[in-house]
Amino acid sequence: MVRTRCVSLCIRELPFSKAVSGFGGTEYQIQVALSPGWGGGWVLGVGGQGLCALRKVVLEIEGRSGCERHELEFTGLMEHASGRQEDAVLGFASGVQRTPLPFSAKLTILEYPLHLAVQTYIGLNFNTMAMLCQGFAFGPMDLACVMDLWLQSDCLRRVPEAEISEVVRRTLRFVKLRWAPVVRVSFVVCMHSCWMQAGHAWWHRSLIRSCLELEVWRGPADGEPGAGTFRSYITQIIQHALAPYPEAFLSALQGFVEGLPRIMVTAIEAFFKPPTSVSDPVAIVARHYLQLLQAEQAALNTVVGDAGGARIGGSTITVVSLMELLEGFRRLVGPPLERSDPRTAVLAFLALVALCDLRHQRRLCAEHLAALLTLDRLPPDSPQARFWAGCFFTLLEFSRTLSQGEPSLTDRGGDGEKEQAT
């Protein structure tokens, strides 16, 4: 059963907001606001709080050349026109439109009341979700409503702390990679939105793992649908988790870096394009580290003949030299790195990690990530915060390209301690 609601709009000025009643006494909020991108234009969004039957929205704009039809995309949590996070709504948003004001439009809202009943049932019996997913067209809006109901119930309070990480992991497996990046990251934030738990190490390990498995680095660019919402999610994580508990996040990040498979120069060269700038100090440093790595790898692979037959040459870099290189990179943390590109900064760091791997000193490199603690209280939505978020996403994306079958250094009994399963 499908219910259709048509709403006529006459937009004369921005921002515009209008409430529309929905099935079961729910209320949908229609918002039109300027696009946050540089190209100008406006974006229209429709959403509802909590459980709702809203499933599809179509926008028809009346123009001189006829009627333009646009199907809105689901974008997860949308900021409310009031600016208050507690008033945010789950819903849909259009792409950037450039129809000049004033204009008339028609909004067609499609509701699926049957799905509302299914949401309620799953929300109260969450373990049946996998079974029902096989027989229902279960989309992101359904999953978002179910999570919202589940998190507000007392189910999570009954779960022992040591098991919450696994509960989050099993829940996020219902999120599909084909959904838009802003939708995927909305579920990551939703399942980690109990900010008081962010003081625990498991919370940050779960956050990193969830971002990796759901590939949240493919975020929309400025001007694309969901770009402002995507930034607001990153801002929430920085403001409520990373800024108050930097040591917990750093510990989880160090464990993540230590657990990566051995990094080879071929993997770095396949993922990164060497920087060509002659004026960017970080680009110069990155090229230097990469050249050192290439030279050391060549020396390692060189066959040297002697009286006793052939032997394999070895790396000539010493632990003392690695310490000096790591200390030099530590001094770049802050404004020098932030004036460069995130990919260039991560390239320089990974070249150092690969050099450390040649001497089995991965932990030494991971420990020098402590320099990130000097980044004290960055404004959550500042260019600096976005730079470091870009570095984090680049690191995750690179780690995804590493061989899945190759054991990590900790699994091979290296200098790291194997993390206990939670």
Q: In words, what does this structure look like?
A:
- Residues 79-86, 121-127, 304-311 and 405-422 have low confidence and may be disordered.
- The chain has helices at 113-124, 129-135, 140-152, 161-172, 181-191, 201-213, 227-242, 246-259, 265-271, 281-301, 319-330, 335-338, 342-358, 362-367, 383-401; strands at 3-11, 16-21, 27-34, 42-48, 54-63, 66-71, 73-78, 89-93, 103-111, 303-306, 309-312.
- Helix content is 44%, strand content 18%.
- It folds into three domains: 3-112, Apoptosis, Tumor Necrosis Factor Receptor Associated Protein 2, Chain A, CATH 2.60.210; 115-244, no CATH class; 254-401, no CATH class.
- Helix 5 packs parallel to helix 7 (227-242) and helix 10 (281-301) runs parallel beside helix 13.
- Strands 2-3-4-8-7 form a five-stranded antiparallel beta sheet.
- A hairpin with a 2-residue loop joins strand 5 and strand 6 (66-71).
- It is elongated.
- The two termini are 43 Å apart.
- The protein is α+β, with helices and mostly antiparallel strands.
> Uncertain runs with pLDDT below 50, 5 residues or more?
79-86, 121-127, 304-311, 405-422
Radius of gyration: 25 Å
Query: Tally of extended strands?
Result: 11
> Numbering strands along the chain, what is their spatial order in the largest sheet?
2-3-4-8-7
Series of H and E elements:
EEEEEEEEEHHHHHHHHHHEEHHHHH
Summed up, the domain count is: 3
Helix content: 40-55%
Classify the beta-strand content into a percent band: 15-25%
Overall spatial form: elongated
> The biggest beta sheet, please?
5 strands, antiparallel
Could you tell me the mean pLDDT? 76
The span between the termini is 43 Å
User: Structural class from helices and strands?
Assistant: alpha+beta
How many individual helices?
Answer: 15
